[in-house]
């Protein structure tokens, strides 16, 4: 995930984040106009499409005062009322799907096809959240199953935490916001939402839609700002949980600021996909091209490293490069476009620099590596050195690395050598190898005969290894955002 979107960075790092897809010069997609305003710009055309009011960090007490009011309002909503709001919002988003999709295109640069899919997913996320509000109320505890407790009975309920701080990035400006707000509202919480300053408009429209569907206005408070605001929000005593999606450096800063409160972190990835010799190569090529270049590669589960058994490597490489060359890069509002712009020209320039550095160190360019403003052509390389940033770090760009391996065992070892992981994929015709890969690959999700870039909004979603904290996916986020309360009745008091 990018640090760009989050506005929460270590103070000492704020000036050098240009090398980390951060908020350094040239990487922002907005600019301030006068005091207290930020203009949101179209990543493709550069035109201003809207503006938002910036929230001063010094006003965090006012923000939390409203959040406390929202907490009271949220607690007063029955489960039926919460579910009705979420179902109503889902219906409204579905009715206005094309308008939502075009807003995503305008502020995030996703292609129209991709934005329509994101809007559809957001509808599903809201409906899943409504179902969770109705379903996940707690369980009976079998006290009488234990010697000494035969005279007791009871249950536990799932109670709201209170105030949840939610921080979201730019790459899925609608559905990732729905993934924070939906479960939080289902659980009876108030939310302080800090969307990306690069793409705040979809978030604001979703909040307006929830209010239109009956949510009390105070339940969700939207704040817009940078690092100082983010630190003030996540460290406020009223906040019981921080739900954060973004980059590792920003995540570390959030953890330092948050202190003793619950954290859920959806951080970055560098997704591997293993292609074995017995795989359906045509299907693997098609899925991996989509997995690598969807949303211009700005995708935390996007395919970045493809490990192919040597005997089929030449055939896979040639077919993959040929398919990549057919992708059309350009205006994201044109339905024929496959790859739109990156979030900013600075982000595209940073990707170009990373690829150029790898080539200087011996990587071989197979196609792409052409930039025009914020457009960066889908880029494929091989022979990338193990020490290169392109191999070891999340590139978050339309760039993929191919590598031949001599065995399944080597592929797994190579896939696992990165210190952080979200998803992995494996293509094979062998059920035995598929099950071995599912067991051995160190990832939060293993997609079999699919690229790493598959996510269903009801499944648990999160990272393995370094930085892994909690899970998203509606049911799992709902459970993170609620707490059990046990009620025990002694029928035979002393």
Automatic annotation (TrEMBL):
InterPro entries according to UniProt: Ald_DH/histidinol_DH, Ald_DH_C, Ald_DH_N, Aldehyde_DH_dom, ALDH-related_metabolic_enz
Protein name: Aldehyde dehydrogenase
Keywords for the protein's UniProt record, in alphabetical order: Oxidoreductase
Organism of derivation: Streptomyces asoensis
Cited PANTHER family: ALDEHYDE DEHYDROGENASE
Aldehyde dehydrogenase domain residues: 39-487
Coiled-coil intervals: none
SUPFAM superfamilies named in the record: ALDH-like
This protein's record includes keyword Protein transport: no
CDD domains: ALDH_y4uC
Similarity comment text for this entry: Belongs to the aldehyde dehydrogenase family.
Pfam families: Aldedh
Source organism superkingdom: Bacteria
């Amino acid at each position: 995930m990018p640090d760009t979107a989050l506005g929460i960075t270590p103070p000492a790092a704020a000036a050098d984040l240009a090398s980390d897809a951060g908020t350094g010069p040239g990487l922002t997609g907005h600019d301030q106009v006068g005091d207290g305003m930020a203009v949101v710009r179209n990543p493709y055309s550069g035109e201003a499409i809207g503006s938002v009011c910036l929230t001063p960090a010094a006003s965090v007490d006012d923000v939390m005062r409203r959040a406390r009011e929202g907490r009271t309002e949220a607690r007063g909503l029955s489960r039926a009322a919460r579910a009705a709001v979420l179902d109503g919002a889902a219906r409204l988003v579905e009715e206005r799907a094309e308008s939502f999709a075009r807003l995503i295109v305008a502020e995030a640069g996703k292609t129209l096809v991709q934005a329509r899919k994101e809007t559809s997913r957001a509808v599903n996320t809201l409906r899943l959240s409504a179902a969770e509000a109705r379903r996940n109320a707690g369980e009976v505890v079998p006290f009488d199953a234990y010697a000494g407790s035969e005279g007791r009975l009871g249950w536990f309920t799932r109670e709201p935490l209170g105030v949840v701080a939610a921080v979201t990035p730019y790459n899925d400006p609608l559905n990732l916001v729905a993934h924070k707000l939906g479960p939080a509202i289902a659980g009876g919480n108030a939310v302080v939402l800090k969307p990306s300053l690069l793409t705040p408009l979809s978030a604001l429209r979703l909040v307006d839609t929830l209010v239109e569907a009956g949510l009390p206005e105070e339940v969700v408070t939207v704040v817009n700002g940078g690092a100082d605001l983010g630190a003030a929000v996540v460290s406020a005593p009223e906040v019981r949980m921080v739900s954060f999606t973004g980059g590792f450096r920003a995540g570390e800063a959030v953890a330092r600021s948050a202190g003793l409160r619950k954290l859920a972190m959806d951080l970055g990835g560098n997704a591997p996909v293993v292609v074995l010799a017995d795989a359906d190569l045509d299907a693997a090529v098609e899925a991996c091209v989509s997995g690598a270049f969807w949303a211009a590669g700005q995708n935390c589960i996007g395919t970045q490293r493809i490990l192919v058994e040597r005997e089929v490597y030449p055939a896979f490489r040639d077919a993959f490069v040929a398919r990549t060359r057919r992708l059309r890069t350009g205006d994201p509002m044109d339905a024929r476009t496959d790859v739109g712009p990156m979030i900013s020209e600075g982000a595209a320039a940073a990707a170009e620099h990373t690829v150029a550095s790898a080539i200087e160190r011996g990587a071989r360019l197979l196609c792409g590596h052409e930039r025009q403003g914020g457009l960066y052509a889908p880029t494929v390389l091989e022979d990338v050195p193990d020490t290169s940033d392109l191999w070891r770090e999340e590139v978050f760009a339309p760039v993929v690395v191919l590598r031949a391996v001599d065995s399944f065992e080597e592929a797994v070892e190579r896939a696992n050598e990165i210190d952080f992981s979200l998803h992995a994929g494996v293509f094979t015709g062998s059920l035995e190898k598929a099950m071995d890969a599912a067991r051995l690959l160190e990832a939060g999700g293993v997609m079999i005969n699919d690229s790493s870039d598959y996510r269903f909004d009801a499944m648990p979603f999160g990272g393995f290894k370094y930085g892994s904290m909690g899970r998203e996916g509606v049911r799992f986020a709902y459970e993170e955002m609620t707490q059990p309360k046990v009620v025990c009745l002694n029928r035979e008091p002393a």
